[in-house]
Amino acid sequence: MRQITGVLIGAGARGRFVYGAYANKYPDKLKIVAVAEPDEERRMLAAAEHGLLDSELFESWEQLLVRPRMADIAIVATQDRMHFHPTVRAMELGYDVLLEKPMSPSEDEVIAMIEASRKYGRLLTVCHVLRYTPFWSSIKQLIESDAIGEVVSVQLSENVGYYHIAHSFVRGNWSRAKETSPMILQKSCHDMDILAWLIDEPCTKVSSYGSLKHFRIEKAPEGSTERCLDGCAVERECPYSAIRIYEEAETTDWTRFITHDLTPHGVREAIRTGPFGRCVYRCNNDVVDHQIVNMEFESGTTASFTMSGFSHDISRTVQIMGTRGEIRGCMEKKDIKLYRFGKEPEVISIADEEGGHGGGDEGLMRSFLKQVRSHGNDARPALTSAEVSMQSHLMAFAAEKSRLAGGKSIALTAQLISNQLLNSIG
Questions:
Q1: Closest CA to 49 of 260, 248, 299, 335
Q2: Which residues form a coiled coil (predicted)?
Q3: Where would I find the beta strands (DSSP E) of 51-200?
Q4: Model-level pTM?
């Protein structure tokens, strides 16, 4: 099994703790040979983790990709609005590309990346990691085996978790849609992708409602302050207190995302001065904290999706209703029950997998590296190739258009036909 070499573009949370960590865990399968990262501290940490020389470190993707190809693959894990240019340039140089989701907040850029993949003959795989999990793979197999007959309706819920939404989408990097992506694209394109995969036919209509209901200045409790350490009178009662989430929590591991200095002093300093110590009611955030999406597919199958930041845990639950049975499941509990109508319910066993996203992170990496090794000899498309992922991105784009239009139904087929850029990809 040939070791694959890679360049890492973006050494933030996903870059370091998922893709970089995979290389460290399986050095015979993947070796990181260069890193591009503008943050010096992150860049030097990545250098230490992968044994890189100064000549293998770059402050920007432009500095890295001005050079001839240095490796087999490029892993693009930059912020959402910085995906397009390094991805296209990397493919132009001959890299196969693993691209963090979402592909881009721009419809035109999504299509242009697919065109570039075809033009340069390079793999472009999107990190829709849920398809690679034993949980969702088992559900897909049940549907394909006709265990519940024809799928009629699906209900999917993403419970973001009160501490996750406060960290990532109120205080953190994905708090403003125009700087990153709308919530339905950034967080929930995973869910659009799973629905598209399970139902396995074109989505034709989408409508959506949602808003930023809670994390607003007018919701700030009396006695609250600009920062949690400014003498806030309600800090001890507030579930979103930075002190509780980063210093005192026993079940979450969010502290490593706010500082590289994990000493008590370092954590306290990050809360005192950094963005993650701000009051959640006084941040400059504008993405929704709850949203629902209704979808109709080509055969008449329907699906509903609910995203909410107001849940005690981080989890996904699903109910799939067919003409001869029903499937219910909770991803985080690894719980799938099959109800064949008129028969006793069956508990479906799920294999244990290591890694984040229920084993999806490592499953994605194994699949991508295998395809890179066989590139040119395997005609089968990647499970989450860019062309496959386009469907879920268009669903998310349509959902956001509907939400902004007050829930107006968006005809997705008409949208595709009217977009002349699609002509070039068939």
A1: 260
A2: none
A3: 57-58, 73-76, 96-99, 124-126, 151-159
A4: 0.91
